[in-house]
Amino acid sequence: MGYGLLAGAIAAEIAATTAMKYSDGFTRLWPSLITVTGYLIAFALLAQTLKTLQIGTAYAIWSGIGTAAVATIGMIFLGESTSLIKITGILLVVAGVIVLNLGGAH
Q: For a 10 Å CB count at each end of the chain, is N or C smaller?
């Protein structure tokens, strides 16, 4: 159950961050509302996740996967530059999340 809630929190955070790009500094109504709503949902689901998962594990997954996903969205869909260094950085973020999770298992 905890990982399902965490997946929802990640999805909401990715949607909110992507919508923020389209909000044009919170001057456009709908993207701004999606941003605020997405972050409210993301934090509510993350808070519920922390009832069953360790905070270090949950936050590492939430922030790491969110960061990697938003960076990838930026490169693929938003015209941001792509380079081997950026791709390596994304892979290192994902690897860091995996290592933290392996280290936290009892």
A: C
CB 11 within 8 A of CB 44: no
79 phi and psi, to 5 degrees?
Answer: 75, 20
DSSP 14-66: HHHHHHHHHTTTTTSHHHHHHHHHHHHHHHHHHHHHTTTS-HHHHHHHHHHHH
Place of tokens 């009832």: 51
- Return per-residue pLDDT of the chain as tens, 106 residues: 999 999 999 999 999 999 999 999 999 999 999 999 999 999 999 999 999 999 999 999 999 999 999 999 999 999 999 999 999 999 999 999 999 888 865 5
Domain that holds residue 68: 2-104
Provide the number of structural domains found in the chain.
1
Closest alpha carbon to 100 in 48, 51, 61, 74: 61
